[in-house]
Design brief:
elongated, alpha+beta, Spore Coat Polysaccharide Biosynthesis Protein SpsA, Chain A, 452 residues, 13 helices, 2 domains, single chain
Length: 452
């Protein structure tokens, strides 16, 4: 299930081509010199199809650092030739950007010399076939991905994650701590599910699980959540809106609807229950969270730390709260925290209208408000060594190369907030067996070894 349908056996260096406008007019160099190392395909969703992909642009900008992550690696006006040995037969579905020419036993079975965005094509193959694929590049993104056609394209995530559902249910029978709240737009539903599963299986068992943001979910996300998170309570957005309206009026409700970080903050501060754990959908939990739960027994706010944002928090909220001196909660981060409501909700809702939300500084609004509300209350900052933030500290081995199974660095959590590229749904599926098989034996698909 998790094994690629093909093996890459060679890949050429990029070679220049002749083009006329948006068409490739020269012939492929089928015998172009070969690169010494083979690129390793990895899982990604291409137009809702899970494919084994090769991102040539990413590959060819390795070792160069650009101010803009979208820049570099384009290899404009070049082509490559790579060879695949098929592990299975059937209909090979492939996507390319730009066009490809494919031959088998010297005979061309697919020819597309045009420049275009990701386009879907199919060829029939047999196990043992060797396909030679020549793909050119006009500019911008440069991607190739493929999978064997399946009767139900959407069944694979269910098949991979379903074996863990029983273990998750068993862990939830005897809860160990406060309810969990998560606000998600459903853009990466598989990663969201893996985040929740990892918290339950590795961290602690919440007394309840509440999902927010359902008005943004598409049909696929809703189906995955209903199927794989049947124990979660999906809170209708209209109920959240009614609560915000009752406390902050139409103005607060309007900005909550316009800015996701305002809505998330309102869910944290104003929506029941009175105490909860909040986690973002880009956090993986690797170890027990006993230190956080213990600290929460005597503190109203326990949080994984950020960098020092105290000056930004005070610049945003200091006037509204008339805070004097330095801010004790200057490193509060909203990616993972426990909170107990120890304030007047109506008063805080009114004060929350005194700072204008700015989309490019959403963290100062969201995190700053909570930081100043709790500045003089009992709070506890967790260890940066256990509650890890790759945005500042990096990640040994990278997102795909770190050994989540054995967790050699001793992380309790890894929060991918702020990164230009967060783990995709495909990456999350790759890491499932490492992330979710740490504490118990689960009959699950074989682990896939990926190269960064």
């Amino acid at each position: 299930m998790l094994h690629p349908p093909f093996e890459m056996i060679s890949c050429s260096w990029p070679r220049p081509i002749e083009q006329a406008g948006n068409r490739w007019i020269s012939e492929p160099e089928w015998d172009a010199p070969l690169m010494p190392a083979l690129p390793q395909p990895h899982w990604e969703f291409l137009k809702d199809e899970l494919c084994w992909t090769i991102d040539w642009q990413r590959l060819f900008k390795q070792g160069t650092v650009w101010w803009d992550n979208n820049t570099g690696g384009e290899m404009r006006g070049f082509h490559i030739v790579f060879r695949l040995r098929m592990n299975t037969g059937g209909t090979l579905v492939f996507w390319d950007d730009d066009g490809s020419i494919i031959r088998r036993n010297g005979t061309i079975i697919h020819s597309d010399r045009s420049a275009h965005t990701l386009t879907r094509s199919v060829v029939e193959v047999m196990a043992g076939d060797v396909l030679e694929v020549a793909q050119w590049q006009l500019g911008w993104g440069w991607l190739w991905g493929a999978h064997m056609h399946r009767q139900n394209e959407h069944s694979l995530p269910i098949d991979v994650l379903m074996p863990y559902l029983t273990a998750v249910r068993q862990r939830l029978v005897q809860h160990e701590g406060p309810p969990l709240k998560m606000y998600t737009n459903g853009g990466t539903p598989i990663r969201t599910i893996v985040t929740i599963y990892s918290l339950i299986l590795n961290g602690y068992a919440p007394s309840a699980i509440y999902l927010f943001g359902e008005d943004q979910w598409n049909a696929r996300a809703r189906y995955l959540f209903n199927t794989l998170l049947p124990f979660a309570q999906i809170v209708p957005t209209v109920q959240v809106a009614a609560q915000i309206l009752s406390l902050g009026g139409t103005r607060l409700l309007d900005i909550a609807r316009r800015y996701w970080f305002v809505m998330k903050t309102c869910i944290s501060l104003f929506y029941p229950p009175t105490e909860s754990c909040l986690v973002d959908d880009d956090v993986f939990i690797l170890d027990r969270l006993d230190d956080g739960l213990k600290a929460f027994e005597t503190n109203d706010l326990v949080y994984a730390p950020d960098q020092d944002n105290g000056s930004g928090y005070l610049a945003t909220w200091g006037r509204a709260y008339r805070h004097q001196g330095s801010l004790r909660t200057n490193r509060f981060n909203a990616g993972l925290y426990w909170i107990r409501k120890s304030f007047d909700a109506r008063s805080v809702a009114s004060q929350s209208l005194q700072a204008q939300p700015r989309p490019h500084q959403g963290h100062l609004w969201e995190q700053g408000l909570i930081a100043v509300v709790y500045a003089n209350k009992h709070t506890f900052e967790l260890s940066t060594q256990r509650y890890f933030f790759p945005l500042f500290d990096g990640l040994p081995g990278g997102v795909l190369g770190y050994d989540y199974q054995h967790n050699p660095c001793g992380f309790a959590s890894v929060h991918f907030g702020g990164l230009f590229e967060k783990p995709s749904d495909g990456v999350a599926l790759h890491l499932v067996s490492q992330l979710l098989g740490r504490q118990q034996e689960v009959t699950a698909p074989d682990r896939v070894v990926m190269a960064p």
